[in-house]
Amino acid sequence: MILSREQTMAKSVAFQAIKPKPFSVWEVMIPVIFILSYMRARENREIFAQNLLFTKKMALEAAFDMVKKEQSREVVINRINSKTESLLSSAPEGVYSDAIRQEQLKEIDLLIDHYCRLMKAAGRDYAALVMEAYPTKAAYIALQEKLKAAEKKVTEAARQTLGTQTDSDMVARIEAATDRLRREEVETIFSSTSRQ
Predict the structure, then answer these.
(1) How confident is the prediction along the chain (196 residues), in pLDDT tens digits per residue?
(2) Where do the structural domains in the chain lie, given as residue ranges?
(3) Which of 55, 170, 188, 194 sits at a 20 to 30 Å CA gap from 46?
(4) CB atoms within 10 A of CB 101
(5) Which of 82, 13, 84, 88 is nearest to 54 (CA)?
(6) How far is the CA of 97 from the CAs of 89, 92, 159, 164, 168, in angstroms?
């Protein structure tokens, strides 16, 4: 349920953040070109969504191993450190930096705690897990704010690494879409209850 929610969120952010380019006359008149353009845009959104899920998948795997396999936090953190160090050494220069990695590790640490709470909660769907893990709307909003701050630090580290290659408009669209979707989620989850 948790992974499904994260995938849905990532796809929704990708759909809102990646603006489709207008179709040309040729794309409209020749269906094959239209289909190819559509498939390319869809593939770009899927790659984008997978990038958004990078830290979340690592944190979710770590939380699962801690809760279900009873591995220690030290073991899972060491595994994450190893994976991200390997990625750092294999990434092209100027694309991934230790500054980005360090901020991602902080985000992952926060996510591990969140996912562990959700995994220890009982519920038939994601909303029920959240409501049990976070007894009030304010508690869940506080988590969302911490996560937003951690993601912002990752983004800032990426801006410093990428310099002029940073697409500031895209970053703004990602942040706006994420904020909007999270606010909607909070309202949906807590609207059916009197918990505040």
Answers:
(1) 999 999 999 989 988 887 766 655 555 556 665 556 656 666 666 777 788 899 999 999 999 999 999 999 999 999 999 999 998 888 887 788 999 999 999 999 999 999 999 999 999 999 999 999 999 999 999 999 999 999 999 999 988 888 877 778 888 889 999 999 999 999 999 986 544 4
(2) 52-191
(3) 188
(4) 17
(5) 84
(6) 9, 10, 11, 15, 19
Cβ proximity of 13 and 56 under 8 Å: no
b/e per residue 52-80 (b: at least 16 CB within 10 A): bbebbbbbbbbbbbbbeeeeeeeebbeeb
Q: Residue 93: what residue type?
A: E
Q: Which two tokens stand for residue 67?
A: 């809760």
Between the alpha carbon of residue 134 and those of residues 41, 118, 166, 171, the distances in Å are 37, 9, 36, 29
User: Are the beta carbons of 66 and 112 closer than 8 angstroms?
Assistant: yes
Element holding 195 (H helix, E strand) = none
- pTM for this one? 0.84
Q: Which two tokens stand for residue 24?
A: 């040309």
* Distance separating alpha carbons of residues 152 and 135, to the nearest angstrom: 26
Contact at 8 Å (CB) between 177 and 17?
Answer: yes
- Cβ count near 26 (within 10 Å): 10
**Under DSSP, is residue 182 helix (H, G, I), strand (E, B) or coil?**
helix
Torsion angle, alpha carbons of 32, 38, 40, 42, to 10: -150
Q: What is the DSSP letter of 93?
A: T
